[in-house]
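In keeping with the milestone schedule agreed at the kick-off meeting, the structural modelling team has produced records for the first pair of proteins. Each record is given below as a sequence line and a structure-token line. The laboratory manager (R.T.) confirmed that both were archived under the project's standard naming scheme.
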Amino acid sequence: MKKLLAVVLAAMMLLACAVAMAEDPFASLGNFEMTVAHAQPKGNPRDVSMDKFAADVEEKTNGHVKVTVFGNGQLGTEKEMLEQVVGGVIQGMRGGQFDFSPRLLMFTLPFLTQNRAQVTALLQSDLAKKVCAEAESTTGTVIINLCDAGGYRQFSNNKHPITKPEDLAGLKMRTNGMKTIDMTFIALGATTTTVPYADLYMGLKTGIADGQENPWVNVEGMKFYEVQKYFTQVNYQFHPDPFYVNADWWNALPEEFRTIIAECATEMGAYNDQLIDQNSEAAKQVIIDSGAEVYVPTEEELKAFQDACKVVYEQVVKEGICTQDELNEMLAIVEAAK
């Protein structure tokens, strides 16, 4: 009788395990925490899409991977957050921080693209995949998604309207330290000063910088229009938005979870770009309604800016950010996406 009871109990336990596995196919894979960070404020497309990513990962892993998002620069500057990812303090961060992956700068050439189709074609190209793959060996991070950091970037300043390249002469323009931004402003006759994103509002208010460049959604979200009077819609540059993840943490995950997280990151990137396109005009209108001046150059005026920036293309090849072949490849990708 005891023997029969033991057999029955064992069978019941096996059945219970089978039922549990059927209900939760990830039950045996363990539980993981993923802390991720970014610098954008609440409501920014990056913030909203990161919240979607966190919810999607938790749902699709049946709660076995819990994602905690720290936005609005709570964990420091973008450079500091990336250093935390490299050191394994946090598992991931999103942001246009290229200090550890300078080859991504090739996609930030001034006036390289003119529309969303061209931006998407570049970011989803084999060339972009190759550049992202280089990150693991050089930085100890894996880039699991590359989307748009905020839309096309515009100029602003407090001195006078910018309607031609010569209007930038003598202006002290803020940059985030990116070479292609510095190169662009210097080509246009301005001087540059580096100010962290989180400090930029006060930097503009106190005159540390005369002006800055950012997408409409960033200007609206960070209220830069309160401390800048003149804006020019030049659409001169977009920034890739790499999602960096610590390579050791990533490679230690079960393959099933890596697949799910990568899929969620892809969906997040598409949603992010959709939000940018939806919100950019509304953000621009907020800036106009604030009383700031927004100047839209004519095609002829815009060509003057483009011509003045051609030297930057030569400089990025000379400095090894990309090869001439890679530059030609980017131009071909953009041309095909028109």
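The second protein of the pair:
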Amino acid sequence: MLNILILFGGKSSEYEVSLNSAYSVVNNIPKDKYNPVLLGITKDGKWLYYGGDKEKLPSGEWVKDGVKAAISTDFGDKCVNVFGENGIERIHVDVCFPVLHGKNGEDGTVQGLLELAGIPYVGCRTLASAMCMDKSVTNTIADCEKIAQAKWLSVTEYEYKKDSGAFVKKCVDYLGLPLFIKPANAGSSVGISKAKTAEDIYKAAERAFKEDTKIVAEENIDGREIECSVLGNDEPVASVVGEVVPCNEFYDYEAKYIDGDSALIIPAEVPKNVGDEIRNTALKAYRALGCTGLARVDFFLRRSDNKVIFNEINTLPGFTSISMYSMLFEKSGVPYGVLIDRLIKLALER
């Protein structure tokens, strides 16, 4: 039986999402093959080993019973050092499943640590994780690969403060109104605003800069929100496609995790040729960005002409049994428990 390090939490705006993903993975991991070892990262960045009741994970109560711990960075050591009252306990791990979302987890930082430690891990490598997390880098590569996407601009906080008016004017002239302002590095739509006037752009930029030192402005696309899951290393496969019908004006953090009234339609009601194009484009983006393991690729299907427009790629999407990534593969014939097993095997294979 293999020891699987479940790494969860994180110093991220998506901390609570990660707790629920970890709880779901622990509940559904094939117990005849794998023994979960839980290592959580608190909101303020403390690393704690947790060996208590898994029911305390979603609420955050697990922190009270956590014990200070750290991954050994000696290459090939493959263990977690737990600093208990009676000294250091070393727990061997065979592979890591980083159930982390957003900054400080999905952006290549943890992946780099695991590479240094020589621990196989689920998901994309360091470079792919970092590129996919940064929307301006992702958009640049998509442009190079001639993948259709919304018109966009980016600016650093330093550049913006030098002449915010010039950036706002450029946005209005090139992208038109309304438009979206996003942090370049954030997840779950945190810090995103829809700007309907030039004055709104200033407020939206201020909000986005609270999450990152670089922001992206994107043309508004009047389209349906379509998502596709991808699984694999050298020969990735794409799932059926699904549609998100947001309860709010757009699929923001509240629509995803708080209001609970957004609808998920799986499979999406789209013509076969459109569904095939979405799946093929998802695989193209996945390969172009060097992804391995898993990713969820998000699109707009423009209402005026059914044009497929790439939006973004998520290398560690929400991973509960009712998250879009796993539900899309469930409908593609890969149940949640089997999906976990395949991801672990892909990590070891790589």
